[in-house]
Amino acid sequence: MGVFVFLPLVLPLTAWPIARLAEQHLHPRTATRLLTGVAAVMAVCSTLCLGLVMVVGTAQLPGNPLPDGWSDPEVRAAVPFDEVAGKVAIPALGAVLAACGRTLWRHGRVRRRAHRALAGLPETQAAILPDDVPYAYALPGGRRDRVVVTTALLDCLEPAERRALFAHERAHLTARHHRFLLTVQLAARANPFLRPLRTAVAYTAERWADEDAARTVGSRRTVARAIGKAALVSRGTPVTTLAGLAAAGPVPRRVAALLGPAPAVRHWPSLFTLVGLATWGAAAGTAVSAMSSANSAVTMVLILHAATPL
After folding, report:
1. Which of 66, 121, 127, 159 has the fewest Cβ atoms surrounding its Cβ within 10 A?
2. Predicted confidence (pLDDT) per residue in 65-124, tens digit
């Protein structure tokens, strides 16, 4: 395996250029799907890398329950600097698993709390809460997906802007944006180098919902006004893990994008552009990361099989 076993830990750096360029030059739908896919693959590869290196570190611990063959010199020789890297990988992998577990637990807890807060209300697509605090968010799951909005926010909007608000939140639910957001959150926990992609996806998912809402109501300017007003009177959503009208992304950039022309739908950018070069660079980094981790896994399995007596 050699030093290639460590490549998946640093290859997420190749995705940094596309994180910002995708926000500016790709259709929000394409950018969200692309960045989420890149982040997911790289996170899995880097976690697998830590797991492989951890095997070497665990094999050196006194009294370990693993087969004695796992501490064979041939196994340790498969990883450079095995004594240091193996021992560091043990707490690192533990920290990654704990962080991802906490994120999943918090995500589930937030959704359960939100559904319990709506208990007793009619099972309609929109839940109007009599609350003096203005906010709105999309709540997936439960018996049915719902749009939650308070009377305080509705009172601040004109009828056309209210239609834009509901169209925006329904777009979140239809496109299952919560899945993209949860995926990049887990990826950022698995590898800190993927945090720029998490930030980018939080923005592009909102832009995706903005564009769908503009197409539904037939007015980009109306959606821009609704976003601007909601941002002025509210503080986003009461819980950061739920998508909302003014929940994520720099609002001035979203408003400016809506006041401009609609983004062109292009599934894959040309290589002969800056964004295309960055996209292909991120794709190459993802492919190398996947191949490196797969090669290291196969090599480690073969070595362990040979070193472990039947």
Report:
1. 159
2. 555 555 556 666 666 566 677 778 888 889 999 999 999 998 888 888 888 888 777 778
What is the rounded distance in angstroms from the CA atom of residue 26 to the CA atom of residue 276?
10
Helices marked H in the chain? 7-10, 16-25, 28-59, 73-77, 82-117, 151-155, 159-174, 177-190, 195-217, 220-233, 251-259, 274-307
**Joined tokens for residue 115:** 């559904």
Q: What are the residues whose beta carbons fall under 8 Å from the beta carbon of 300, sequence distance 6 or more?
A: 1, 52, 55, 75, 78
pTM of the model as a whole: 0.84
Neighbours of 231 (CB within 10 A): 18
CA atoms within 13 A on the CB side of 163: 11
How many Å apart are CA 46 and CA 8, to the nearest integer? 5
pLDDT in tens, 199-210: 999 999 999 999
